[in-house]
Design brief:
single chain, about 400 residues, alpha/beta, D-Maltodextrin-Binding Protein, domain 2, ten-stranded mixed sheet, three-stranded mixed sheet, about 15% strand
Length: about 400
């Protein structure tokens, strides 16, 4: 495992967590650019929701749509090309998509100014506070987003962004283990919260993967050890979890990427830590004629659940068009068509697990990978970490990935 990973992104500055001030004098210096912001880092948690600092004003009402090209920054394979084409035809514009692999990469490139998209998809609340503190996002004008009422009720006023000032939910998902049902996988371990240990089984060496996400993968090791706090600041617990991941590396030589939706479906790997939506997306990557029944997903009793969201950068040159794209994706029928390619569950009230199955969007064999309202509510949340805590996590991640 030789992937070069992001290091600490912070030096000291003032931090606000859930409305309480912590004096850390943390400066968000821009990567490569030397720019600094003066906006506080404000972190919301389910127990302490926050209203994020307002940086700038939403665009005015009644502005005309911009022409030309809408530039979107997104994960790979996270928008249906047919959905993009339909938007282009409906609005008479072009859409280009640039790809990032991790949220940390997106943050770094946008802070340095090396990329200036009009719209960003796929960010989560684990990095939102940093994007806002770096003054990279603009407040939204929901007057342009009439379909906002289609969003799941519980996410219309999210704890990480009260009032949905900067974010609109895109998809929801949970963490678990994806696997091939036609390979020699010991599924007897998939009970309670014991199933994480499957990833340490040397029988899967060379055909196993973990997520290229320091928060998700270290949290998985914490959960395996019985520490069910994916935001812990306990240095001892983190050190033990990383020790366990180093052992995992020795036993199974895992890939570290976010490609299991392709690799498991294509037969290139047998088992992986992944997001629930990866196996739903995997259906579209199966060889022709292969049944979706070969894809399985273990959904733990206790696991992180999350949602990705849409955000519009302050540097967007086409903010009205960006609002229009968000509104377009919040249409129920459009979202269903997009889901057919992306796989992940749209965060829309009407597209319940039952509705997705009834519409034929999800095969019966993968019903267990769907996030029900109960699962979402019970899930753990990965929130933004205080700078000193984040440094502990990143140090541990580097120790794991560099051996």
């Amino acid at each position: 495992m030789t992937r070069r990973l992001s290091r600490r992104e912070f030096v000291s500055r003032s931090l606000v967590v859930g409305g309480g001030s912590i004096a850390l004098a943390h400066l968000l210096s821009a990567c490569g650019g030397g720019n600094e912001s003066t906006t506080q880092l404000v972190i919301g948690t389910p127990d302490a929701p926050v209203t994020l600092p307002t940086v700038g004003e939403p665009i005015a009402d009644g502005l005309p749509l911009e022409s030309g090209t809408l530039q979107i920054y997104n994960y790979a394979d996270y928008l249906n090309p047919e959905t993009i084409a339909a938007f282009e035809a409906a609005f008479g514009v072009k859409v280009t998509v640039s790809i990032y692999d991790t949220e940390e990469v997106a943050l770094s490139k946008m802070r340095s100014g090396s990329i200036k998209p009009d719209l960003v998809l796929g960010l989560t609340d684990s990095v939102l506070a940093r994007f806002v503190a770096a003054e990279l996002l603009q407040p939204l004008n929901r007057g342009y987003i009439g379909n906002f009422e289609n969003v799941i009720a519980g996410l219309r006023d999210p704890y990480y962004d009260l009032g949905a000032q900067y974010t609109i939910p895109y998809v929801i998902y949970g963490n678990g283990i994806g696997y091939r049902t036609d390979r020699d996988i010991d599924t007897s371990v998939f009970v309670g919260n014991e199933g994480w240990s499957a990833l340490w089984n040397p029988a899967y060496a060379g055909r196993l993967a973990v997520l290229d996400s320091y928060r998700d993968t270290i949290s998985m090791a914490l959960f395996r050890a019985g520490v069910f706090d994916p935001n812990t600041s306990d240095a001892s617990a983190l050190s033990t979890a990383v020790d366990d991941l180093v052992e995992l590396a020795t036993l199974t030589n895992p890939k570290i990427d976010i490609l299991s939706y392709q690799e498991i479906a294509g037969g290139g790997r047998d088992i992986a830590l992944c997001w629930s939506g990866d196996m739903l997306a995997g259906v579209g990557y199966l060889p022709e004629g292969e049944s979706p029944d070969v894809l399985g997903f273990w959904y733990p009793e206790v696991t992180p659940t999350a949602n990705d969201f849409f955000s519009i950068p302050r540097a967007s040159t086409k903010p009205v068009l960006a609002h229009a794209f968000i509104n377009y994706l919040l249409d129920t029928e459009v979202a269903l068509g997009n889901q057919a390619y992306v796989g992940y569950q749209p965060a829309l009230e009407a597209l319940t697990a039952e509705a997705l199955v009834n519409a034929g969007a999800i095969p019966e064999s993968l019903v267990g990978a769907l996030v029900t309202p109960e699962r979402y509510s019970a899930g753990k949340r990965l929130v933004s970490l205080a700078p000193d805590v984040d440094a502990l996590w990143l140090d541990g991640w580097t120790r794991f990935t560099t051996g």
